[in-house]
Design a protein that fits this description.
single chain; about 290 residues; alpha/beta; Oxidized Rhodanese, domain 1; five-stranded parallel sheet; 11 helices; globular; TST/MPST-like; transferase; Thiosulphate_STrfase_CS
Length: about 290
């Protein structure tokens, strides 16, 4: 690399200037359904990748290759050694510089960022604006299936405890000690729209900070950091606040966590099971 390795956000211009760098590992991590540029109907994310992706990018299967498929919940994170091995199979080794983007919501990209940072891997950044901004700027795209990067030696994971589990969240509900941040839409937060397992509402005591509200509609870039800082501060969140962010499956919540990290907050975690785990147990309370 001709510049220091990125650690949070990179611009479309930065990426365009570094596409040929041999250390770069560029991934589209979109899961579920997405729209191809100019499309009108959602399709499976891998099919959308094959229709249009940033030149040199590979598709990273977050659900099947980077999650524990034996777990009861989708997108459950792998144990550290298994996670490092999965990333190595995708071509991410100790010397790689990873840039990840999405063709839909940011959460897919920030989930990969969060997973790598939880393992102590810092040479990873999210593309500001994702594919939408890249295409809006008239930059070139490629199509077709792409072979994976060559497997790399696995890096040694160093656990960072960026995730919270159910007992920790239950303890907060019972006794406080952290701010629970719901990253879903206002309708999900209020209970107007049913969540996982047909139950509506939020974990008791939560505040609402929808992940979608952190993004500028004009070009899909994140809002300026000073604006985001003010929005979190208005909710009572300072760098001294212990935060646990959650959503439906631990995806959208990583954008809230990512923004807080970009703002210099160190005391933030993501509830991995989120409402998919919490609402599965009818004895767990929900507010609406």
């Amino acid at each position: 690399m001709t510049e220091p390795a990125p650690s949070l956000l990179v611009s479309t211009q930065w990426l365009a200037e570094h596409l040929a760098d041999p250390e770069l590992r560029l991934f589209d991590a979109t899961a579920g359904a997405a729209l191809a540029p100019g499309g009108s109907q959602a399709e499976p994310a891998r099919a959308v990748f094959e229709k249009a992706h940033i030149p040199g990018a590979r598709y990273l299967d977050l659900k099947n290759d980077l999650s524990d498929t034996s777990a009861a919940l989708d997108f459950t994170r792998l144990p550290p050694e298994a996670a490092a091995a999965a990333f190595a199979r995708a071509g991410v080794g100790p010397g790689a510089v990873v840039v990840v983007y999405s063709t839909s919501t940011y959460g897919w990209a920030t989930r990969v960022w969060w997973l790598l940072n939880d393992l102590g891997f810092r040479r990873v950044a999210v593309l500001d604006g994702g594919l939408a901004k890249w295409v809006k700027e008239g930059r070139p795209t490629a199509n077709g299936a792409q072979p994976p990067y060559p497997p790399a030696p696995a890096f040694t994971p160093v656990a960072q405890r960026l995730f919270a589990d159910l007992p920790e969240v239950a303890a907060v509900v019972e006794a406080g000690g952290a701010t629970l941040v719901n990253a879903l839409s206002p309708d999900h937060f209020s209970g107007a729209v049913a969540g996982p397992h047909g139950r509506s509402g939020r974990i008791p005591g939560s505040i609402s900070l929808p992940a979608g509200s952190l993004v500028a509609a004009a070009d899909n870039s994140l809002k300026p950091l000073e604006v985001l800082k003010a929005e979190f501060a208005a909710k009572g969140i300072s760098p001294e606040t212990d935060v646990i962010a959650y959503c439906g499956s631990g995806i959208a919540a990583t954008l809230d966590g990512f923004v807080l990290k970009a703002l210099g907050h160190d005391r933030v975690r993501v509830y991995d099971g989120s409402l998919s785990e919490w609402s599965k147990d009818p004895q767990r309370p929900l507010e609406a």
